[in-house]
Specification:
It contains 28 helices and 21 strands. By secondary structure, it is an alpha+beta fold. Among the domains are: 16-109, Herpes Virus-1 (2-Layer Sandwich); 127-203, no CATH class; 452-615, no CATH class; 621-729, 2-Layer Sandwich (Hect, E3 ligase catalytic fold), CATH 3.30.2410. One of its GO terms (molecular function) is ubiquitin-protein transferase activity.
Length: 730
Amino acid sequence: VLCGRTDDCPEKYGEKRTFVEYSLTVHYYCLLMSSGIWQRGEEDEGVDGFLITDIRKEVNRAAKLKCNICKKKGASIGCVAPKCKRSYHFPCGIKKECIFQFMEDFRSYCWEHKPVQTFMDKESRGASQCTICLDLVEHLPTYTILKSPCCKNAWFHRECLQYQALSAGIFFFRCTVCNNKDKFQKEMLRMGIYIPERDASWELEENAYQDLLQCYQHCDIKRCLCKKGRDYNEPDSKWEIKRCQCCGSRGTHLACSSLKSWEQNWECIECRSIFAKSGKYGRKKKRSLATSEKTDGTTCLMEEPSPKTPRQSSGSQHNFLLQSPKIMYQNNLSPCSHLELPASNRVTMSLSPLMLNRNWSLRQKHLREQRKEVCKILKELKLQVNTKTTRLNINADDIWNSALKGFRQRNFSPTNTIEINFINCKNKSKTDTSAASKHHFFQLLVLHLQNSSLFEGSSAKNLSLDFQAVKENLYFEAGKMIAVSLVHGGPSPGFFSKTLFDCLVYGPENVKPALEDVADVDVAQTIKMIKYANSLSSLQSTIHDCYEFLAAAGCLRPVTALCDKNMLVNDILIHHVIKRIISPLESFRQGLKTLGVLEKMQMHPDAFSSVLCHKPKRLSAETICDLFTIHSSSDVKEVKGADFWMGYLQDVESGESVVTFEDILLFVTGSSSIPSIGFDPEPTIKFLRIRYPIGDRLLNCLELPITNTYQQFKNKMELTIRNTLRVERE
């Protein structure tokens, strides 16, 4: 009814929709670009919010206008350039190379006033491949050819870009060369490419990734003992298949490798050979090989795969294993033991960007799993906390002294529920017993501890030696505060060095520190001079120069050969990093025993390492989406609201919003980070008929308004969150 054509070409004119009850057929793009119509209805009214009566009025208005291209009536689209009176149909405009911008006010420009891309005089006027269709494209400033705004030599056919945008959707449409999204999408929208606000077509395909959910289920032992075959798998029995804990691409029945339980570690022969060649195969692994012998004295033949079984290349396994964060623990070495190996024994490889990205993703997945485990453990510990309350009066300007006073007061008990009452320097009370104030208190406290004189180092910190702090028993109080913070919903500390963590978990006698653990610049320089001495005479000269330091440290030893420097360096490191601070370390350990935290750390070292030694992962759209549970009814509009919420998270992640994920979390919960124990109650979302969003910090509930358009939703979110947080800060 708008362009007068019967063509059904969704790529050019948008979806063609027919409404039999209204005797009405429209192309979606014709409707969007018509100059005299707006969305005045709800999303489920009329045609995507365009009311049927408004469409008929627009048809009547256009019937009086003649198209400047085909000279027929019904031209509903006009050029927005000042003083330009041209009108045209949408298909005519496409044919005449007009530009239609599918954003903001949905502006259209005629062939004379359309925006063009600027080309530098220095740019090559040759030809290159279109990186979508791989055909040649000339470097010419024409309507049918577009240049990437982010890559110097990336050129595309307009038609290829439009097909790519329709397939990828707003979340995945980006430059095919550099992967830039924001700058690329902005320029393509300006030049008339339509980017639908939906997920990519491959994400919408049902069971598209079903093959990735298959686990390897095959016994690769040379002599499989299972009568039902190598592929037989019976859970919770001796015929359960255990996969290699390193590569996951080999398997064995528990009985075939004499494994007593599923929890026992097992590696395939390829992974063992890689460990052996890299010099990282520890003594305990050799013992585990011995355990593969049968009890009757016969040896169980190890994993020589059957000829029918597909196998990864050894190179791919090698790359993966060398980068895997699990290797140190699987070899039962201390986590810092890789630093002890001489450079000649270390394997260095050049990894492809794809492999590095895969390894990084695997490490991040491992961290997420470990943090989930910590969350469960801390929730178990929190069962000790009773309903009896202890109120702490906290001065935010003097967080340490006021916290210390509160923790040392007679009625303080770690098993009581903690309430925080913030006061200012004039003792004017600001009563706030909500969880938000407790989050804020623990954030300030952990940040102060991280930067206090009790710890030394840059990002990964060890305990320092502060005699006054030892005298006042502050190391004990620091350990106690961190334990209480973890169980009562405080943030993840994330600043422990691996050496400090291992001393706490395994005991200082089982840990060998590295040069990176030395924070004192002068001591580090002395160790380097000894370590890198290239002759016996230079080594003896260095020892002579630092004789007093070595004597005070108890590290003097006769040096008769250059290789003696390794033992000397080791002695200095153990003295400076461990023996020197043994008293603070013991006090700190005693403090961490509060509420049973240290005991759980020793039982689950991998899990607690993820929150004590690693900074929390930056918040992302996926993290926030998983954190909030949407409580919805059968109202169709709420489903649209959920889409708006997801779209808004994507905007925040891509930097297209003035609000950050931390702002959203702070607005709802009063905390800008996710505690190690998680939130209680768990954050939820409700869609209500309200004007503006509301953050209920008592229930951790985000109440969102139901809006007609995404832009209205985004504007209300940003206005409310920014103003609320600004007022709070003031």
